Amino acid sequence: MTMTPSLPGPLAAVVSEFQEVQGQDKLRLLLEFADDLPALPAELEEAAMEPVPECQSPLFLHVDAGDPERVRLYFSAPAEAPTTRGFAAILATGLDEQPAGDILAVPDDFYTELGLAALISPLRLRGMSAMLTRIKRRLRDS
């Protein structure tokens, strides 16, 4: 198991999980993540969230950097967009409650280490990059 030093522990664990499976099992793992995307808290509505137009499916995110040592990330994606939900769930699992500095240090192309490029179109993969870019922009602006 190779740990990438620039990734926060939980995100490194997700990357490692993907590296341990091959071929279609990677897609199955992505769909498992999609099923586990946390629901939005009651007080947060999609209308108050930032859309990520680069994603092929409707995706909204909210970054709560009130405590820079424990940044909260919220995502909303429709059930009929499992790839987008999977990407959001990977970021939620790997980066929610991490320090802002650690999130900002994540390489923009970390998702290449998931090994999904052969299975998912570059356009869809760019959606994950766009989510991370927007999270980082919010952190820099806060």
TrEMBL record:
Domain of life: Bacteria
Extent of the signal sequence: none
SUPFAM superfamilies associated with the record: SufE/NifU (SSF82649)
UniProt-listed Gene3D superfamilies: 3.90.1010.10
One Pfam family here: SufE
InterPro entries in alphabetical order: Fe-S_metab-assoc_dom
Boundaries of every Fe-S metabolism associated domain copy: 16-137
Transmembrane portions of the chain: none
Protein family (similarity comment): Belongs to the SufE family.
Name of the protein in question: SufE-like protein
The species this protein was found in: Mycolicibacterium litorale
